[in-house]
Amino acid sequence: MRNLVLFTSMILSFWGCSNDKDFGGLENIGWNEKPLQITTRILTTKSTNFIQEFKEGSMLGLQITSGTVDDLYNGISTYKNVSVKAYRVNGKIRWQQSPEVILDSNEATIYAYYPYQEDINFNARQIPVKLAPNALETDDYMYGTHAIGQKAVNSTSPLVLLSMNHALSLISFQLNLSKGKTGAFIISSVQVGNKPGGTTLVSEGTLDITTGDIIGSTARSTSASTVLSLTNPVTLINEKYCDPMRLMVIPPSGTIGTGDVETLFTINGETYKFDIPANTQWEKGKNIYIS
């Protein structure tokens, strides 16, 4: 009897120490609750302009819901626009949530966007998007939700794989010299914008986190343009096509006629205009090649 009491005391003492050391951060979490864990995958057209994978310091915004985007999980208001920041552990990306999301037996649906924007009036269907005048400064806006085949996300299965999609279009230009043309032709910049007075291309809009669709703002569309200034100018010397020159744009909506969107190339210090063809397919996440 004395040995049994001693053995029982040792077990209780051991459990108490383990609980204090390893589970202190979970002291406010019920036994039927688990913290949400996320991992990401970017569905992408391979290009140096589109992000291929998230790096340490990248930040996403999450909308934690019970199904539809406006139905916050368990009615918890802080689960709107949750920020998550990437950090690296043993060479792998992990995500730190603020605030931490706790799951119970109820199923959760997670929506995500990139890059994170702090906004007290956050609306998941109207996330601001902006095309920078300097093409190199335009963010690679993304949206996403559960990957196809994802199991129900709850306390029993708290890990969610988020498939992220690009919301902007990428337009690539490749030029060459016509047969018999001689001399060196140096391209120093490429600009994409509307024809004078046109409103096809927009520089600002709002992104719907559920579909990736961007509703453009026509208020400033007449001045919408973005310029790629080439740090290393491209030289055309023969009939061989040059390396692609790429810019991201907000996909235009509606029917587009020839010349509604125009491209201005600066070559040997002079400006040359090229009209984007009619019916060019400006799809989000797609690369449009023009040569």
TrEMBL record:
Pfam families in UniProt: Mfa_like_1
Protein name per Swiss-Prot or TrEMBL: Fimbrillin family protein
Native organism: Parabacteroides distasonis
